[in-house]
Specification:
The chain has 173 residues and is an alpha+beta fold. It is built from five helices and six strands. The strands form two sheets. It has a three-stranded antiparallel beta sheet. Strands 4-5-6 form a three-stranded mixed beta sheet.
Length: 173
Amino acid sequence: MICPSCNTQNIPGAEFCESCGSDLHDLTHPEAEDDFTQHIITDTIGAVDADAPPPVAPSDPVGLVIHSMQENRVSAVLVKDGDELVGILTERDVLLKAAGDDVDLNALAVRDLMSPDPVILQEDDTLAVALHKMSVGGFRHIPIVTDGKATRIASIRDVLRHISPYIPSHSDG
């Protein structure tokens, strides 16, 4: 959908223009051509089975957090200062930012590796919005906020698992 204020192309169903921030709520929403597209533009991120990892503090040692991630079988954690979301730490952050033979992961704090001030999703954001934010930002994980608090993390794998039953099958007949 094209923003009437700045003529920027936005994904169908976007609530605000990605370029200028204009409200797009009143624009005509696209009609789904198939069941798969219908689910992308109407299902919310709240319907996705996403992880609720234990929160970590910015001062926690990275080594301890990695152990917790392994124990809980999660690939990302929410970094909170009290109830406030201040960052996200993913396995990719650890791999790309803590590489080296001389790195002591127990002497390194989460704040040194986390992605601060992460882009978030609201529980009622559509899968189209989630996929758009992940694609534009290059994220594989994104926090979900419910009632003002970040409680879960949606991964691209979670979203794909949710929509995969609706992908149309094509036979080469």
